[in-house]
């Protein structure tokens, strides 16, 4: 009897399910009708608001603002819901039925609320009224330019807008105003995307930048057509957006990149800024030319930047100011830059000199560079491959080229990597030539005649195959002062270089096939000599005769073994000595003979020599250093205050215990140290309070990094300031901590943690420890064959003190990147939920036992969304499909980010 009753109950349930499924489509259609009615109601209300916008002292009621937002949100929700109904399985459609009913009720309530409004606006209190714009502002050129672009965007007949004008005229500034203004126009556009396009147009790079702005990932496939399809699919799901492409140099079909056509139906618009009207015509766009400032506006802007608003200008300075403003060609960027360079200067001579330099500068750039930077004509950039760099805005570059088009004569053909740069006759009045980063594969056999040439940049593109420079090539360049031949494939330098007696700088970086360098004996004027990444085995002959040499860089010449002391000591004017990553070992006595040293990167024979130098007075005055004992690390990207010690080549007992780490040390690397069980127990680190980076490699006895026995009374701990820690090939490393909880008042500044080839570790973090590391941004774990958990619950660690109750959710507020690779025993990232609002990238590869991705979704009101910064989740397809989810909705929401 019971089984018969059960059968009837099951049949009843099945009947209910079938009814639910049969009613799903009618309910969805009912919901769509209600959304259409709501949209009409919203349009009527917006029209009423627009018609009363010119009424003074009125503002929109808060409840009306909320209602408009709620209608827009509901409309978007229903669009997504409709898509899920179309694509969902039977069981997912059953679940969707309840959501549809909820949305119908919500739409009904919104419709009733919209009908019940008693007026849409209220009187604005006098204290909140905005100051009306002054007459001169409304009529300024900039205001007119902004207004013309804005009118195009508000015109439904215009879908593409091309903002064009010469460099520095203010196109980007205008679009920044427009961008900010669009963000306030939430009723017309849902989102605004800004992408800066590089001069060297590259489809793949533009696709990447657009995807980055959209906060989505597209495949790394080299096939741009496939990437275009992916990007098109992402953008097609969005409506009512404005895509701004800033600084476009050439036209392209939108479909080639993956940008959908902006139409009235999707409510999207495309805006581009360019220097070329032809680009606007070929895109095609409605062109808006950006007007130059008037003479009066240019002078006013210049004076505001040069002297501010409070100082009266003497008549003579006003005359010079007018001339400077004129030279800036009414371009806002030029005026702001030059005006800023004169700010604080009050003497007539200084202003007149600035004017003369603007018109015709013939001074050597190397002498006036720490001046150009301070006056904003050059901008300091980050170090790249160990070299300090500066940047010049393309407007300033264009101005310089125009000024030097006649006299002195420059020939600049830099960055031409798309095609081979043809050789052209070099006239005898040329003073400076630049083929920097250009594609040059050969030079003429007949030497050019350039008796006035002072600067020659042939530091060509890495793609170039230049292998031979004719021996006589530099014969007719007697005045040459700066010569850069970096990145070439030459095996030997021409003999004619030996006779360039006026040469001040010889730069040979990245000439990785260079074996032979001629004598430098006659180059006594040489101040800067750089020869890196080459195949040389001996120092160039006559290097000891370079008595005026200030900068010597011989780094990464791995075949170079010796630098005789007597030769090094003769270079008494050296300020920069960079010979790391070579076989050369120096002594403290050698360095102390060079009294002008500011930057040092060298290898010492042993720790005793290193310690002797660290306690010397000369060391205290260094600006940057990289001091190495042993073979040193594999590479260096930038100079700083760094130590590297390799114990594989440093015998124990050679002064290791007496090593002193100096104040201000930023980076420390140690290889092959066998004795300490805990890194923080080493005495060296107790006073290293400025240490920011620590790389530990092949220390076979190391079992932990932090030891509670090293806690200090003031709550500090050695290595507590370190931001970056890399742990590689540590066979006995068990834990980061020695399983005794740090006090709650001790916080580690760790931001980056990399663990590789540490085969004894079974887990990375006990959950309790995470409270002490609030700044963690990057966690990378790979090639650790015993790791089973990344974060473990307290209950799984028996020896921790200070037990606390932890919920099933942990917060990693600053974590941006999580990379787990080649972890064959990894079962769990975390058993609970990880709240990571800043997460951008997740990589899980070649870790087949992982079954959960414990990433928490972001809640926007009642709506679950991906973490706001998320860009990409990379995992093998098999792993992604095998993951188990606490809620199937989570997988659906994260699916677009999976790669």
TrEMBL record:
Gene3D superfamilies, per the entry: Helical domain of apoptotic protease-activating factors, P-loop containing nucleotide triphosphate hydrolases, Ribonuclease Inhibitor
One GO term (biological process): response to other organism
Coiled-coil parts of chain: 21-84
Domain spans labelled AAA+ ATPase: 157-296
Pfam families in the record: LRR_8, LRR_RPS2, NB-ARC
Keywords recorded for this protein, A-Z: ATP-binding, Coiled coil, Leucine-rich repeat, Nucleotide-binding, Plant defense, Repeat
Gene Ontology molecular functions: ADP binding; ATP binding
Similarity annotation: Belongs to the disease resistance NB-LRR family.
Protein name, UniProt field: AAA+ ATPase domain-containing protein
Organism: Rhododendron griersonianum
